[in-house]
Design a protein that fits this description.
Layout lengths: L18 H14 L5 E3 H4 L6 H16 L3 E5 L6 E5 L17
Antiparallel strand pairs: 1-3, 2-3
Helix pairs in contact: 1-3
C-alpha cells in the first residue's frame, strides 16, 4: 500500500524559554515593526548576542504572524525570511499570545 509520509515534529522541550520574555518581545516588536516597513529576520536580529534571544524573537515573530499582524515571506529556498507589518491599526491582544511553557 501507499505509506504516509512521516510527520515532522519539532520538539522544543529542550529549549528553556521564559514565557514573559516572549510576550514582552511580541509587544516590543509590535511597537517597532510598523515603522520599519519590510525587514529581514536576519536584520531584525543582527544586534542580538545569544541564541536564546534569537529563538525568543523567532517565537515572537511567529506569534505576530499567527495573530495576523505581520506577513512572512521568503524569496527562495533557504533565503532570508522577510517580515512586513500589515495591520497598523490592530490592537495587540496579549491574552492570545502563547506562553511556550514546556
Amino acid at each position: 500500500g501507499i505509506e504516509d509520509k512521516p510527520v515532522l515534529v519539532v520538539r522544543l522541550n529542550h529549549v528553556t524559554v521564559d514565557a514573559v520574555t516572549v510576550a514582552e518581545t511580541v509587544v516590543t516588536l509590535a511597537q517597532r515593526l510598523p515603522a520599519m516597513g519590510r525587514i529581514s529576520f536576519r536584520d531584525l536580529t543582527a544586534d542580538l548576542e545569544t541564541r536564546i534571544e534569537i529563538i525568543v524573537h523567532f517565537l515572537a515573530v511567529l506569534e505576530l504572524c499567527k495573530l495576523g499582524h505581520i506577513e512572512l515571506g521568503q524569496g527562495g529556498t533557504f533565503g532570508d525570511v522577510q517580515i512586513e507589518w500589515i495591520d497598523a491599526k490592530a490592537r495587540l491582544d496579549l491574552e492570545r499570545i502563547d506562553a511556550y511553557e514546556g
